[in-house]
Design brief:
The structure holds two protein chains of two kinds. Chain A is mainly α. Chain A has 13 helices and no strands. Classes of the chains: A mainly alpha, B mainly alpha.
Chain lengths: 279, 353
C-alpha cells in the first residue's frame, strides 16, 4: 500500500515537472518579446548576464512605433474589419444554422451539401478566381473586399448547426404552439441558449480576421488601407535591425486578441465539446 | 365571372380529391419501401395543393414555411454563393485555360498540367510541402494529445496552463515569428549564444535555423509549438466525453496507466483523432505565412529549399499573372487534400465496421 502511495506521489511530481517545462516553452517567447520591447537595440541580445527589465526601460519604443509608421491607421483599419466581419459572421451563420437545424423545408439537404462540400476546400485553392471576381466588382484595394471574403464562411454555419441540433426540438415546438413566429423563437430562445457556440465562433473569427495576412496582402495595396499585420511586416522588412521597436509593435498587435480570448475562453472548451468540433 | 371561377374551383377540388384517394390506395398496396416513401411524398404535396385551392389563397402553408426558412438562410447563402461557390467552380475551369487576367481566355486542355511535370520550382514546392506535412502532423498530434491527457487530470492551476497553451495559437504570425527569428538569430540570437557558450559549438558549426536544409525543421518545430494548444482543446473535449466508469472498471481489473490509455483512451478517442488528423493535414497543406515569415527574404521571397505550394500559387498568379497555370498548381493542392481526407474517411469507416 505504501509503495502505491509513493508511486502516486512520484507520478504527480513527474506531471508537474512536465507541465512546468511545457508552460516555460509556451510562455518564454512572449516574455522575451515583452522584455526586448523595452530594451535598446544593443541590449536586446545580451544574455550574459540576462536582465528581464533593463535598468533604464525604454518605454519610448511603445510611443515611437506610432510615429515611425502610420500605426494608428493600421490599428483602426484592422479594428473596423475585425468587428464588422465578426458581427456579420455571427449573425448570418446563426441565422442560417437555425433554419438548417430546426426548420423543415424543400431542398434543405441539397443546400446544406453545398456548405459541407466546401468545408474541406482550402481557401488558397480558389483565392485567385475570387480575386478576379472581386476586381470585376470593383472591390480591389477596398476594405469591403476583406469583409466579403471573411464574413460568410461554411465553417460558421456548420459549427452553429451542430450546436443547435443538440437543443431539443420540443422547445421550439412548445414555442410554436404558443404562437411565436420563427424569428421570435430564434431571437428569444435559440440565441441566448447558444452562448458557448457563439463565443467559440467569435474567438475563431476575431482571431482569424485580426491575424490574417494573405488576404489583406492580395487585396489591400495602398498604404492607408493596410492592416496591422501588413503594416508590421512592412516595418520589419524596412527597419530589420530596430529590434526594440519591432518587438513593441508586435506586443501591441497581440493585445486585442489576447483580451478577446481571455474574456471568452470559459465558454471555449464547452463550445468545442458541444458543437461536434471534436469530430 | 365569379360563378365560373367557383365551378372551376370545385372541379379542381374534385380532381385533386380523386387523385388523392388514388394515391392513398396505391400507397396501401405498394410493397417496396422506397416506392412507398415516394407516394407518401406525393400525397402530402397533393394535400397541400388541395388546401391551397380550398382556402383560395395564393400560397400554401408549406410554401410559406419554405419562404421563412429561406429568409433565414439567404443572408449567409448569397454571400457564400458569390464569394465561395462561384470562385470554386471558376477555379476548376481556370486550370484548363490560359489567361493573364485582361486578354481573352484560351482553352489549353491539359497543357498546364503537362507543364507542371517539367517545373523544378513546382517540384521543390510540392516536396517541401509534403515533408512539412509528414513532420508536422504526427508531432502535433502526439504533443497535443499528451498535453490534453495531462491537463485533463486534477492538477493545480490547470486553468492557467490551458490558457497558456492556447496563447501561441491566438498570437499573430507576424508578431510571433519576429520573436522566433530573433531568438534563433544565427549570429546574435540567445539560442545560438547558449549553444556557443555552454555547449561549445564552434562558431562555424552554429545552426543556420532559417536557411538551407534546417529551414523545414524549424518550420515544423514552430508549427508544433504554435498549433498544439488548439488541437489540445479538441482532444480535451474528446476526453471529457469518455465515461469515468470505464476507467473505474479498468482500475478494478488492475489495469495500469499504460493499459488504460491503450484499451480505453485511445480507442474512445478514435473519432477525435480522425478529426484532428484531417484538420491538421488540411492546415499543413495550406502553409504559406509560416514559410514566408520564417524563411523569406526581405520582401518575402522564398528559395527552392523553403518554397511551398501556396507560395507558388501566389507567385504565379499575382506576380507573373499566369492565372491558368497558378490554378493548375491549386488543383494539385486540392487533390492532395481531398486524397488525404478520403483515405482518412475510409480508415475511419473500416474501424467502425
Amino acid at each position: 500500500m505504501r509503495s502505491a502511495h509513493r508511486k502516486a506521489i512520484l507520478g504527480k511530481i513527474v506531471v508537474y515537472i512536465l507541465l512546468l517545462v511545457i508552460a516555460a516553452l509556451m510562455i518564454t517567447p512572449f516574455l522575451w518579446m515583452f522584455s526586448a520591447a523595452i530594451k535598446s537595440d544593443r541590449e536586446v541580445f545580451k544574455i550574459n548576464p540576462f536582465v528581464f527589465i533593463p535598468e533604464v526601460p525604454k518605454w519610448s519604443n511603445y510611443k515611437d512605433i506610432w510615429t515611425r509608421i502610420p500605426f494608428g491607421r493600421f490599428v483602426g483599419n484592422t479594428f473596423l474589419l475585425t468587428i464588422v466581419v465578426t458581427v456579420l459572421q455571427l449573425l448570418t451563420s446563426s441565422f442560417a444554422a437555425y433554419s438548417f437545424a430546426k426548420l423543415d423545408f424543400r431542398h434543405r439537404k441539397g443546400l446544406f451539401l453545398a456548405y459541407i462540400a466546401t468545408i474541406a476546400m482550402p481557401w488558397q485553392v480558389y483565392m485567385v478566381p475570387q480575386f478576379i471576381l472581386m476586381r470585376k466588382m470593383g472591390l480591389n484595394d477596398k476594405l469591403l473586399a476583406i469583409i466579403c471574403l471573411q464574413a460568410f464562411s461554411a465553417f460558421g454555419v456548420f459549427l452553429m448547426k451542430q450546436f443547435y441540433e443538440g437543443i431539443p426540438d420540443e422547445l421550439c415546438e412548445a414555442a410554436r404552439i404558443d404562437g411565436m413566429s420563427e424569428y421570435q423563437i430564434y431571437g428569444t430562445i435559440m440565441l441566448p441558449l447558444s452562448k458557448p457556440a457563439l463565443a467559440t465562433l467569435l474567438i475563431f473569427t476575431f482571431v482569424n480576421t485580426w491575424n490574417d495576412y494573405l488576404g489583406p496582402l492580395i487585396y489591400l495595396k495602398s498604404q492607408d488601407k493596410k492592416t496591422i499585420q501588413l503594416g508590421l511586416k512592412m516595418f520589419i522588412s524596412q527597419y530589420s535591425s530596430d529590434y526594440g521597436l519591432i518587438m513593441a509593435g508586435s506586443m501591441l498587435s497581440l493585445i486585442p486578441v489576447l483580451i478577446i480570448f481571455l474574456c471568452f475562453q470559459n465558454y471555449f472548451v464547452q463550445g468545442i465539446a458541444s458543437t461536434g468540433l471534436k469530430g | 365571372m365569379k360563378n365560373i371561377t367557383e365551378t372551376a374551383k370545385n372541379t379542381k377540388i374534385e380532381e385533386l380529391q380523386n387523385r388523392l384517394s388514388e394515391l392513398i390506395e396505391m400507397a396501401h398496396t405498394e410493397k417496396d419501401a422506397k416506392e412507398k416513401k415516394k407516394l407518401i411524398g406525393q400525397i402530402s404535396k397533393c394535400n397541400g395543393e388541395l388546401e391551397r385551392v380550398k382556402s383560395g389563397k395564393l400560397i400554401t402553408r408549406q410554401t410559406k414555411r419554405d419562404l421563412v426558412a429561406y429568409s433565414f438562410i439567404a443572408p449567409n447563402f448569397i454571400g457564400f454563393c458569390v464569394f465561395t461557390l462561384i470562385p470554386i467552380i471558376f477555379a476548376f475551369a481556370l486550370a484548363f485555360m490560359n489567361w493573364d487576367g485582361s486578354n481573352p481566355l484560351s482553352f489549353e486542355g491539359l497543357n498546364n498540367f503537362r507543364r507542371l511535370g517539367g517545373d523544378t520550382f513546382f517540384k521543390a514546392a510540392l516536396k517541401n510541402t509534403i515533408i512539412y506535412c509528414i513532420g508536422t502532423v504526427p508531432l502535433t498530434m502526439v504533443a497535443s494529445l499528451a498535453l490534453a491527457i495531462i491537463l485533463n487530470q486534477k492538477v493545480f492551476g490547470r486553468g492557467i496552463f490551458r490558457t497558456l497553451a492556447f496563447f501561441p495559437y491566438v498570437a499573430s504570425l507576424v508578431a510571433i515569428t519576429s520573436v522566433w527569428k530573433l531568438l534563433f538569430h544565427p549570429s546574435k540570437g540567445p539560442i545560438n549564444n547558449i549553444l556557443y557558450t555552454y555547449f561549445h559549438v564552434s562558431q562555424e558549426n552554429l545552426p543556420q535555423w532559417f536557411s538551407g536544409g534546417l529551414c523545414i525543421v524549424s518550420m515544423i518545430l514552430f508549427s508544433v509549438w504554435k498549433y498544439m494548444g488548439y488541437y489540445m482543446v479538441i482532444y480535451l473535449a474528446g476526453l471529457q466525453g469518455i465515461s469515468g466508469e470505464l476507467y473505474e472498471a479498468a482500475s478494478l481489473d488492475g489495469a495500469g496507466t499504460w493499459a488504460k490509455f491503450k484499451y480505453i483512451t485511445w480507442p474512445q478517442l478514435s473519432s477525435t483523432t480522425f478529426f484532428v488528423v484531417v484538420m491538421l493535414t488540411i492546415n499543413c497543406f495550406k502553409i504559406y505565412d509560416i514559410a514566408v515569415m520564417l524563411a523569406g527574404g526581405g520582401s518575402g521571397e522564398l528559395t527552392t529549399s523553403a518554397t511551398v505550394l501556396v507560395y507558388y500559387i501566389y507567385q504565379k498568379a499575382f506576380i507573373d499573372w499566369d492565372l491558368g497555370y497558378s490554378s493548375a498548381v491549386a488543383m494539385v493542392l486540392f487533390v492532395m487534400v481531398l486524397a488525404v481526407t478520403l483515405i482518412q474517411f475510409k480508415l475511419q469507416a473500416d474501424k467502425e465496421a
